[in-house]
Design goal:
single chain, mainly alpha, DNA polymerase, domain 1, hpI Integrase, Chain A, 2 domains, 13 helices, 3 strands, about 5% strand, Integrase-like_cat_sf
């Protein structure tokens, strides 16, 4: 059976017997047409001529792209989706007796590229914090306290907005964070954060509270500040600070970890501070510091080049 006939039979199977949605069917059709053209370019006419190596090389070709033919490289997520269609096709062909072996069975999708966290320079973080606390208005005091806390201890945004007043001890300079899976951790906070929290507790929070609530950070109506509200606080401060890039609460968490490692902190200590269950999760930040060291080395060492 020709590859064209086998593909048509598989798509009919998806339509009639599997009841696949029209959009999914169209996506499978495009992916398999790309696969059919690839095999045709290699002068492979029959499905029984395809080997596992051909399937693997097809994935490599998708990731590499073909500028001469006007084909841009596909993202890993798109390659993985195409592999799903290709594996399904070969599995069907083997089950229907069109071919003897399912040559795509052992082919796995490419591992996604490891994205480096985006950390702000210290100077940019300082500009954000100073901009957030401009004035003595209760909400300005709250905003400064919130952002100082996020950067000082690397809290997740949900951990910060979930704080109660009793979770913060400014005398011990520590905060109790309630992390994922109900796990708690006690994290130190720095002097500027303590000062901002004290100012908010004394002069800001009493003016915002309208009913009895243990919540630390309050909105304008006196209720607990939401995650979306905290996002807006940071976005506004970053915009007023003149930062052009998008800044999220997680950006401050990334910056907290990266700046600690740049300063010589042990990765396992940073792991505990961030509340990561595994040090492997934290080690992605070491890639950032290695890149920084490489840049310094390249510019400073007389025989770096």
């Amino acid at each position: 059976m020709s590859i064209d006939d086998a593909v048509a039979r598989y798509l009919d199977h998806l339509t009639v017997e599997r009841g696949v949605a029209a959009n999914t069917l169209a996506s499978y059709g495009r992916d398999l047409e790309r696969y059919r053209r690839y095999l045709a370019d290699r002068r492979i006419d029959g499905l029984d001529e395809v080997s596992e190596a051909d399937v693997r090389e097809f994935l490599v070709a998708l990731r590499r792209g073909d500028p001469d033919a006007g084909h841009d490289p596909l993202a890993d997520s798109s390659v993985a989706r195409t592999l799903v269609a290709t594996r399904g096709f070969h599995k069907f062909a083997a089950a229907e007796g069109i071919v003897v072996d399912d040559v795509a069975h052992g082919v796995r999708p490419p591992a996604p590229a490891r994205r480096l966290p985006k950390a702000l320079p210290v100077a940019d973080v300082v500009r954000i914090l100073e901009t957030a606390g401009a004035g003595d208005h209760p909400r300005a005091l709250r905003d400064r306290a919130l952002l100082e806390l996020l950067y000082s201890c690397g809290a997740r945004i949900s951990e910060a907005t979930g704080l109660d007043v009793d979770d913060i001890d400014t005398e011990l300079r520590a905060v109790r964070l309630h992390g994922k899976g109900g796990k708690e951790r006690l994290v130190p906070i720095g002097g500027p954060a303590v000062e901002a929290l004290d100012a908010y507790l004394v002069r800001g929070r009493p003016s915002l509270i309208s009913r009895a609530t243990p919540a630390m950070f309050l909105n304008a109506r006196g209720g607990r500040l939401t995650r979306q509200g905290a996002w807006q606080v940071l976005a506004g401060a970053a915009e007023r600070a003149g930062l052009e890039q998008s800044v999220s609460p997680h950006t401050l968490r990334h910056s907290f970890a990266t700046h600690l490692l740049d300063g010589g902190a042990d990765v396992r200590v940073v792991q505990e501070l961030l509340g990561h269950a595994s040090v492997t999760t934290t080690q992605v930040y070491t890639l950032v510091t290695v890149n920084t060291m490489r840049e310094v080395y390249a510019t400073a060492h007389p025989r770096a080049r």
